[in-house]
Structure formats: C-alpha cells, structure tokens
C-alpha cells in the first residue's frame, strides 16, 4: 500500500500544479479599462504601480494596494503615515520625470487631474490610465467609480465594495445632519484674498451630495482662488454655514484662514456668531479631493460640525 501511494504522489502533485497554473492564468486575464482618454489593456494584475496623482495614491492605499512610485512633492499630510519609504520619485504633478519612469518599467501608471495632460507621453512609456473625476458630473460617484475600476484591476472587488458602502453611509449621515440647517457657502482663502466655490467646483459635493443650498446662484469657479469676493459681500449674503478651504495651507505654505476671518465685518455674520464655520482639511479639499480617505476625512469634519450644533 505504501509503495502504491508513493508511486502516485508525483502524479498527484503534478495535477495540483497544473490546476494552480490554470487558476492563476484565469485570474491574470487581460483587463481593458475605459477612461477619459481612451482604453488601456492591462496584462494581469500589475505589480509595480506608479501614480502621478495623490488621489490615486489615496485610493490604492485604501484598497490595500502597494504603490511603488509617486510624486516627489505635495504629499498630503493626512497620508503621511501611509507613504512607504523607498518610493520612486516620478517627478511633480505637472512635470513627471519621464526618464525615471521609463527606467523603472512600471506595469501600470495612473494619471489624473493635474497630471492628465501628460497622458499621451506617459502612455508611450508604460500602460497608463487616466482616473480624472469630473466635478460637474459628480465627485462622490467619480470616487466610487474609480474604486470599482481599481478593484477590478487588482482583483480586490470585495474590498472596493466595502469602501463604497462606507462612503455611501458617511454621505447619508452628513446629509441627514445638514437637512434643514440652512444655507451654506464654501470659500477659499488665498494669500489674504477670499474666493467662493460653487456647485461645479472641486468641492461641489458639499452642495450637490449633501443638499446644502448655496447663497449664490452663479459662481465663476476659477482653478485656484475661486470667484473673488470681499468681506462686505460675504456679510451681505450671510450664509448660515461657512466651509473654509485654506489654499495656502493646502499647497504647503503657512495657513492664515482663521486669522483672516477674525475681523469686525465677519463677526457680524450668522455663521460667526453661531460658531458655524467648518475648516475642511486643506490638502484633502485642494489636492486630493478625489481620494477616498481625504473625502471621508472631510465628511467626518462636516458631521462633527453639524453634530455639535444640534
């Protein structure tokens, strides 16, 4: 009996090896991803992944996917504990280091937002996808869509589903707390100036997803400083709630939003007198507004703000 078992053991191992190989082959099938700049076919599950976008880093980290290369600047503070040592420096968001990327031969490169314009060049170097999110079409839905896509690419669909469910729950909680709490306005402070963001801006979800009515119907959403306003104009329109994005702090400079708003005119507003000012994480709001963890962080800040007023 022992001889018989010994004789068949190699055959059994060989059959198991074949079965594992077939399973691995099935799991490593090519995936074609449709994105804002076309279609990209990815061969198997990428192992060496570069991102030229911190929101993409945020989403991959939330999914438990290791990133091998990222920009050498503008890393959000809230992600500091998630950034591994030894990351390949792929350059800046606007000016990637194409030579460094080519030398490393990544399996996948992700661009988005500020780096989207580099797609034609990067895609000649390695398989590349553009994960830009349209503020107008919906930031929350865009983030969820990107999580689904990344879940498919890296075979972590179940994890993506959990993150999406948690995001939906967080949005619903914030929306419930904001209901019937009055009007709101998102402003950006920039080098001593005030600007406003509207329903088509990088923080459009505050209005569109949370159902907070804006005191302005028409806003010229500029890239950096919003639509310029004065303290007098802010007092005249007087929203119930004020959401503040400190751009200076968002780009790594010394923030001054709190000091800027501490003046005689602002002291007459409803939001100041009722302590209804919510300071959004500046880097999450300005740099990685399409990142899962950053969006969840800002939702928590809004939930805390509205919760404390009830």
- Helices and strands: which structural class? alpha/beta
Count of spatially separate domains: 2
Strand content: 15-25%
How many strands appear in the DSSP assignment? 12
**Radius of gyration over alpha carbons?**
24 Å
> What CATH architecture of the largest domain do you see?
3-Layer(aba) Sandwich
CATH H-tier superfamily of the largest domain: Nitrogenase molybdenum iron protein domain
Q: Largest sheet at a glance?
A: 5 strands, mixed
- In CATH's first tier, which class of the largest domain applies? Alpha Beta
Shape: elongated
Oligomer: single chain
Unreliably modeled segments: 1-27
Report helical residue fraction: 40-55%
In sequence order, what are the helices and strands, one letter per element? HEEEHEEHEHEHHEEHEHEHHHEHH
Mean pLDDT: 87
How many angstroms separate the termini?
77 Å
- CATH topology descriptor of the largest domain: Rossmann fold
In what order do the strands lie side by side in the largest sheet?
10-9-8-11-12
């Amino acid at each position: 009996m022992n001889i018989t078992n010994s004789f068949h053991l190699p055959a059994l191992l060989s059959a198991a090896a074949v079965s594992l190989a077939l399973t691995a082959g099935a799991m490593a099938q090519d995936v074609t991803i449709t994105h804002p700049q076309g279609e990209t076919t990815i061969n198997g599950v990428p192992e060496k992944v570069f991102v030229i976008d911190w929101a993409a880093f945020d989403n991959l980290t939330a999914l438990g996917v290791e990133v091998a290369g990222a920009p050498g600047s503008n890393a959000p503070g809230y992600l500091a504990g998630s950034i591994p040592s030894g990351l390949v420096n792929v350059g800046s968001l606007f000016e990637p280091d194409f030579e460094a990327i080519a030398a490393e031969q990544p399996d996948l490169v992700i661009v988005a937002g500020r780096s989207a314009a580099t797609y034609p060049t990067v895609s000649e170097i390695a398989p590349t996808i553009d994960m830009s999110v349209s503020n107008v079409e919906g930031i929350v839905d865009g983030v969820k869509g990107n999580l689904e896509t990344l879940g498919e690419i890296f075979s972590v669909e179940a994890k993506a589903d959990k993150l999406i469910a948690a995001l939906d729950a967080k949005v619903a909680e914030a929306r419930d707390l904001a209901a019937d709490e009055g009007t709101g306005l998102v402003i950006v402070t920039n080098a001593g100036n005030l600007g406003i963001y509207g329903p088509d801006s990088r923080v459009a979800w505050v209005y569109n997803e949370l159902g907070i009515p804006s005191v302005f119907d028409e806003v010229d959403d500029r890239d950096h400083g919003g639509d310029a306003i004065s303290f007098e104009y802010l007092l005249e329109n007087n929203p119930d709630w004020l959401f503040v994005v400190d751009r200076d702090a968002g780009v790594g400079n010394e923030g001054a939003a709190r000091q800027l708003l501490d003046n005689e005119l602002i002291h007459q507003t409803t939001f100041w007198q009722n302590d209804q000012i919510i300071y959004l994480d500046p880097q999450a709001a300005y740099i990685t507004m399409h990142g899962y963890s950053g969006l969840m962080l800002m939702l928590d800040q809004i939930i805390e703000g509205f919760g404390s007023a009830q």
